[in-house]
Each structure stands twice: as C-alpha cells, then as structure tokens.
Design goal:
Length: 439
C-alpha cells in the first residue's frame, strides 16, 4: 500500500521548506576535513558533529571505535593493520513502535585526500556554491548521502510522522581505499534490518549490485644503459608498452564476457562493463640517471562483476599477462613481476532485484521525479559488500550525485538532486517501515 497523497505532499512541502537547512548541513560536513590516510584517518571531528546532530534529533546514539567491538578482530571480514584511535562510528536509531520493518541507511564520513590545491577552482573544504553545485572534497563521496539520510529523518519528524519500524542511521569510518571495517563493526555489534540503503552517489539510480575487483602492481624489467648507447640496453618503457597493450586486449576479452551481465548491460551507462585497462599509476626511468629505463612500475584495477568468481577472473588476468610476456624475446626469460596490491579482497555482490526495498524505492522515485528510475549495478565497490556478504541485511546503493565527480579536483554535489534525494528517502522510509502520524 502506497503513501496517501496528503502525506506525500506534506513530506514534499516540508523538504522544500528545509532546503536551506539541507544545503547548510552538507556545507558544514564538507567544511570539516575527514581525510583517510591508512593506517589512520581524520574522521573524529566530523563524527562528533554528526553525533551532536543525532542527539539533537532525539535519536538513540551509539558511538564506538570499530576495533573495540567484541569479537570483531576474529571475524572473517575484519581487515587488520588499521588504527581507529579517535575514529568512531556513530549510529543513530529512530525507534519505531515495533510493528514494522527496520531500515538501515548507511554512509561513510571519510574522504580521500584532496590533492594539490592549485588544481581546484574552488576551495577543497570550502563548501562553496556555484551555479547550483556545492563544491568540496566529500561533497558527493559521500557526505551528500550522509546529509540526505539525516535530513530525510528530520523532515519526517517535523511532519509529525513516526515509523512502526526502526530507522537506523549509520555514519561509519574507513570505507575509502577498501577499508570497510566501519560497516563491519556495525554488523558485528548487532545492527541489522530487513534492508539497507548505502547512500553512495548513484545519480539516483537504484543499484542492487556492486562490483568487486583487484588492484595490481606490475613491475616490468629492462636493462639500463647510457642514453648515448641506448642500443646496449633494453628499455623497460618499451616493454611496459607491450604489457599495456596486453592489458587493453584483456579488457576487450572481458567486454565480450560481461556485456550481457544483467546489471551492467546498458552500453550508455557502462560502455565497458568490466574495466581492466585502468592504469592509475606509472613510473619509468630516473632523471637523475638519464639512461635507458631499467624498470617500470604500473598499478591498475580490474573489475569483477556480480555473478563472477573473483579468483577465476584474477587468475585469467595473471595468465594473460604472463602469456603476453612469453611472446617477447626479452621478457620470456625476464618476466614482469605481477603482484596483487595488499588490500582486503573486494568481492562482487548483489541482492534480489525483486526485494520490497527495490519496489519501494522505485515507487518513491517515481512519485518525486515523475519518471521511471534506472535499475542497474553500481560502478564501483562499496560498503554494500559487507552487508551482502556478512549479514542477513540485503543492501543496495542509492544516493545523490555522480560518482564520476569523486576522487578528483572540484568534486561537487548537484543541489537539486540532493534535495530530491531527501524527498525520495523520506517517502521510502514511510513506505518500507510503515508510518503513524500525530496530525
């Protein structure tokens, strides 16, 4: 049963009336730097700010460092070697009457480093607004999602609406760079529901599946020589170009293997369903030596999609690179070193596309946007993996903003989409958890 039109309109009016508050709350979050820098991170101050907000909303607030959760360091999903001092999770529970379903809304407060400030046209932590966009590191990934889920609950409270089921707001630490221990700590501590929405930037697409994958470091050898006697050496740069071409060939193979994946088949959204040719770091030679490069190092990521086996795909990639090297006169006897970057295994996951939360999100989106939503897979990996692998709470991704704006200078959140997401989330909460109204 859907939400009556009168309740829907009341929620929409309340969100519109709080537009400035929604924008200001996101600005406040962006202006508190919370950069992750393994093994530590700077999430403490922003988490304190969020905890204060949850207290003001009358939520039951739980503040805890992930490593302090009983039994977590023996859990199969725990990734060791990280420091959580002054990096607490903050959970706020809006208690229901006990008659409805529990919904978890999850977001991470850590952000990646902002990089050189001179590459930004807007202050990285300024929260500046320009032509309908709010700029700053974390604006889209994913303090926008944290703002949306918090303000959706506050708008419902101010509408005089309560829920029959619990709504659990999780502001977690340590998601970026494959941490994920923050969300795992919430799971192990006992926060469970009938569904979870991870508020990563999905451009308001409903995404029941997430990618997995593996980061690689490939070291390609050569023979150094004086640049005036280059013929006496073997250029590791030339060899690396050959390996790069092999990576391109592997991506073409993967394209054919994954083109029909049920969540990644739309070529307009996913020109390449499973990315492999994504070298994000490359080092060749040494200007202090000024000679033929004797070694190159590159790092890259390869995607694995829901329904695929992570170990099978990674083995096929390693075999492909090894076989390509065998075709080269030098590398057949001096093969490149292929190493898996030391990080937690990132598995692809998905939840059932016919689950009630998918239907309720679809209905709520349509009511607000007056069009049908797109249902597909998330372009990357995220904390939804932890729910779908290590709990009985099925999770999907849905949130404001475009993922392509993240991890780059002038990251931004589209303000209209932020406000729309608050309306949609408020509606999906009352749809999924059932509601009661005081007036």
């Amino acid at each position: 049963m859907g939400v009556p039109k009168e309740i829907e309109e009341r929620i929409i009016r309340r969100v519109e009336a709080k537009r400035d508050d929604i924008i200001e709350f996101l600005q406040d979050l962006v202006r508190i730097p919370s950069v992750t820098h393994p093994p530590g991170g700077d999430e403490g101050p922003v988490q304190q700010f969020i905890a204060k907000k949850y207290h003001q909303m009358g939520l039951t607030v739980d503040i805890f460092e992930p490593s302090d959760v009983a039994g977590i360091q023996d859990h199969e999903g725990w990734w060791p070697g990280l420091d959580y001092t002054n990096r607490p999770n903050v959970v706020g529970v809006w208690k229901g009457s006990g008659q409805g379903k529990t919904l978890i809304l999850n977001g991470h407060s850590d952000v990646v480093h902002e990089g050189p400030h001179e590459l930004w046209e807007h202050e990285p932590f300024g929260g500046e607004i320009d032509k309908g966009r709010l700029y700053g590191r974390g604006a889209v990934d994913m303090k926008g999602g944290l703002a949306a889920m918090t303000m959706a609950v506050e708008c419902l409270q101010e509408c005089g609406i309560t829920c029959q089921g619990d709504v659990i707001l999780e502001s977690v630490v340590n998601e970026e760079l494959g941490g994920y221990n923050g969300t795992l700590a919430c799971i192990v501590k006992g926060y469970h529901g009938e569904a979870a929405i991870v508020l990563e930037p999905s451009d308001l697409k409903i995404e029941p599946g997430t990618k997995g994958g593996q980061a690689y470091k490939i070291t390609v050898p050569g023979v150094g020589a004086h640049q005036s006697f280059w013929w006496e050496g073997v250029s590791a740069l030339d060899n690396a170009i050959k390996i790069k071409k092999a990576i391109e060939e592997f991506e073409k193979i993967r394209h054919h293997q994954t083109r029909d994946n049920e969540l990644y088949s739309d070529p307009l959204i996913f020109p390449t369903p499973a990315i492999s040719d994504s070298v994000y770091s490359f080092v060749a030679g040494n200007p202090a030596i000024m000679g033929v490069p004797y070694e190159t190092k590159m790092e890259l990521w390869i995607d694995v999609l829901p329904g695929e086996d992570l170990d099978e795909v990674t083995k096929s990639f390693e075999d492909h690179i090894h076989n390509a090297a065998l075709l080269d006169w030098y590398m057949k006897d001096n093969p490149p070193k292929i190493e898996r970057v030391d990080m937690r295994p990132i598995y692809p996951t998905k939840m059932p596309s016919d689950h009630k939360i998918v239907h309720d999100l679809k209905d709520s989106f349509t009511a607000i946007m007056q069009t049908e939503p797109t249902i597909c897979g998330f372009e990357a990996a995220c904390d939804a993996m932890m729910f779908n692998m290590h709990s009985d709470t099925p999770a999907l991704v849905f949130g404001p903003g475009q993922l392509g704006s993240a991890h780059r200078p002038d990251e931004f959140m589209d303000i209209e989409q932020l406000v729309a997401s608050v309306k949609i989330l408020a509606l999906v909460i009352v749809n999924f958890c059932n509601y009661e109204t005081s007036h």
